[in-house]
Amino acid sequence: MIHLLLLMTTTYTVLHAEDKKVLASQDISITRSNNDIDAIRAEYKTINGLKLKTQQFKYENLECVDEGEITYYLQGNEVRKMVEKFVKGDGYTLTEYYFKDSKFIFAIEILIGGPAIGPETKTEYRYYVKNDKALRQMEGIKTVVPDSKFTEVLANAYKLLKARNAKNFNEVICNVE
Fold it and tell me: What is the Cα–Cα distance from 150 to 126, expressed in whole angstroms?
C-alpha cells in the first residue's frame, strides 16, 4: 500500500512538473511572438512616417481584374511598402504590403463587395510575418489560424516585388504567362 501511494505521488509530481515545463515553454513562445508583433507594429509606424519616393503602375489589359493599380513606396532603391488596389466584378480589394530589409513583414488587406442588390460587406485581414512564416493572422479583431489566404498574400508580396522591374503584372496578378 505504501509503495502504491509513493508511486502515485511520484507520478503526480513528475506529470505536474512536465505540465509546468510545457506551460512555461508556451509562455515564452507567446512572449516572443508578442515581442515580434510589437516590433512589426513599430516598423509599420516608421515606414508610414517616412518620406518615400513613389512609383505607380496602372493595370491595363489584365485578364483577371476589371481595373487596378499598384504603388511602390521606395527608400532609395529599396521597396518599403506596396499598395495594390483593384476591382473585380462587384468586389474591391486594397492590400498594403510592408517590408524591412527586403523581407515581407506585414500586410493589411481590405475586401469590400457584395451582390449588386444588397448590403455591401467589408472584411479586413492582417498578416504578421517573420522569416516568411506566419506569426499571426487576424480577421477583423479576431485572431485566426493562418490559412491559405496567408500563403496567397505571402506569395503575392514577393511576386509584386519582382514585377516592379519586369512590369509583367498579367503574369503576377492573373497567373498568366
Answer: 9
- C-alpha span between 176 and 165 (Å, rounded): 17
pLDDT tens for each residue of 83-122: 999 888 788 899 999 999 999 999 999 999 877 777 889 9
Please give the Cα distance from 157 to 103 (Å, whole number).
Answer: 9
Closest C-alpha to 35, from 156, 164, 136: 136
pTM recorded for the entire structure: 0.79
Distance between CA 26 and CA 31 in Å, rounded?
A: 9
The gap between the terminal CA atoms of the chain, to the nearest Å, is: 77
Q: What is the mean pLDDT of residues 125-139?
A: 96
Choose among 79, 86, 95, 91: nearest CA to 164: 79
Residue 74, Cβ density class (10 Å: 0-12 exposed, 13-18 middle, ≥19 buried):
middle
